[in-house]
Design a protein that fits this description.
Layout (H helix, E strand, L loop, with lengths): L1 H13 L7 H8 L6 H20 L3 H15 L19 H22 L1 H20 L3 H22 L18 E6 L9 H14 L7 E5 L7 H21 L7 E5 L20 E6 L1
Parallel strand pairs: 2-3
Antiparallel strand pairs: 1-4, 2-4
C-alpha cells in the first residue's frame, strides 16, 4: 500500500489542481492504442479502477490501476502485479505466487497474441485477487476475484491447448479372396438336383462373409447338341441356380448371370460328346 500511496501523491503533484479522480478520468477519455491485448487490458483496468473508486472508495488502489490502464492504453505490455509489492497474508503468498506463474506462462506462451481478450481478462482478475487479498477483510470480494481469475485461466488454457491429433484412419478391411464353386447337371437337364442344392447351401453360407458381395453365375454345357441350343440350355441352368439362391435369401441384385454354352468346356472333347464335367454352372463370390 505504501508504494501505491507514493504513486498517488506523486501523480497528484504532477496533476496539480486535479481531483483524486484524475488518472481514472484521463483513462476514461483515452482511446486505447497498441495491440488487441493492450487495448483489452486498458479496458479491464478501467473497469477495475472504476469499481475501486466508485464502489469501494479505495482511491489509492483505484489510482494505481488507472495508471496501469493508461500505460496499457498507450500500447505498453503491462505485467501482472508482483506479489512482493503487496503486503499479502503469509499463508496466501504461495498460492498467489504459483497462480502468477501460471498466468505468466499463459501470457508468454502466446496468450497475448492469439487470445488477447481472454489473456487480458485473466490478468485483470489476477490483479483484482491480489488487491482484495491484501486487504483481507472482505471474504466475498476475495473469493469473487479468485474464482474469476481461475475461470478466466481455464478459458485461456483451453483455447491455447493444442488441437488433438486426428484419430488414425481405420485400417482398411482386408479384401476377401473370391470363392469358387461348381454345380453339375444331368444330360440335357437344367434343374438343380440334390447334389447341386447341397453346394448352393454352402454358397449361401459363404456369401454372408462378404460385405456388399456379388455372385456371378456362368452356365456351360457339353458339346452334344447344336451351339444355339446349348447357349439357351446354359442360360437356363444359370438362371435356375439364381432362382434357388434367391429362395435361400441372397438378394437378387447381388447375382449376375452369363451363358457360355459349349464354348468353354472344363474338359476338351470333340463335338457331339456327352461329358458330365462340362454340364455345369460355375459360381464365383467376390
Amino acid at each position: 500500500m505504501f508504494k501505491r500511496l507514493i504513486g498517488l501523491v506523486g501523480g497528484a503533484a504532477l496533476l496539480a489542481g486535479c481531483s483524486v479522480y484524475g488518472n481514472l478520468e484521463e483513462l476514461q477519455k483515452t482511446e486505447p492504442q497498441g495491440t488487441a491485448f493492450t487495448k483489452a487490458l486498458a479496458k479491464e483496468y478501467q473497469a477495475f479502477s472504476e469499481f475501486e473508486m466508485y464502489d469501494m472508495r479505495d482511491y489509492v488502489d483505484a489510482d494505481h490501476f488507472a495508471r496501469k490502464g493508461l500505460r496499457a492504453a498507450a500500447g505498453e505490455v503491462v505485467l501482472p502485479e508482483e506479489i512482493a509489492n503487496w503486503n499479502e497474508p503469509a499463508d496466501r503468498i504461495k498460492v498467489l505466487t504459483s497462480s502468477r506463474e501460471r498466468l505468466m506462462n499463459g501470457l508468454d506462451s502466446g496468450g497475448r497474441e492469439n487470445h488477447p481478450m481472454e489473456a487480458a481478462t485473466a490478468q485483470a482478475k489476477f490483479d483484482c485477487w491480489v488487491e482484495q487479498q491484501e486487504e483481507n477483510h472482505q471474504p466475498k470480494d476475495i473469493a469473487d476475484c479468485m474464482n474469476a481469475f481461475i475461470a478466466a485461466m481455464e478459458v485461456l488454457e483451453q483455447k491455447m491447448a493444442p488441437e488433438p491429433a486426428p484419430a488414425p484412419a481405420p485400417a482398411p478391411q482386408p479384401m476377401m479372396e473370391p470363392a469358387n464353386f461348381i454345380v453339375f447337371f444331368g444330360f440335357d437337364q437344367d434343374n438343380v438336383n440334390e447334389g447341386a442344392a447341397q453346394v448352393l447351401n454352402l454358397v449361401g453360407s459363404k456369401f454372408a462373409d462378404y460385405k456388399e458381395g456379388q455372385i456371378m453365375l456362368v452356365g456351360h454345357t457339353d458339346t452334344a447338341g447344336s451351339a444355339t441350343y446349348n447357349e439357351a440350355l446354359s442360360l437356363r441352368r444359370a438362371n435356375n441356380v439364381r432362382f434357388k439362391l434367391i429362395e435361400m435369401g441372397v438378394p437378387a441384385s447381388a447375382i449376375g448371370v452369363e451363358a457360355r454354352g459349349e464354348s468353354e468346356p472344363l474338359e476338351a472333347t470333340a463335338d457331339g460328346v456327352r461329358n458330365p464335367q462340362n454340364r455345369r454352372v460355375e459360381i464365383t463370390i467376390k
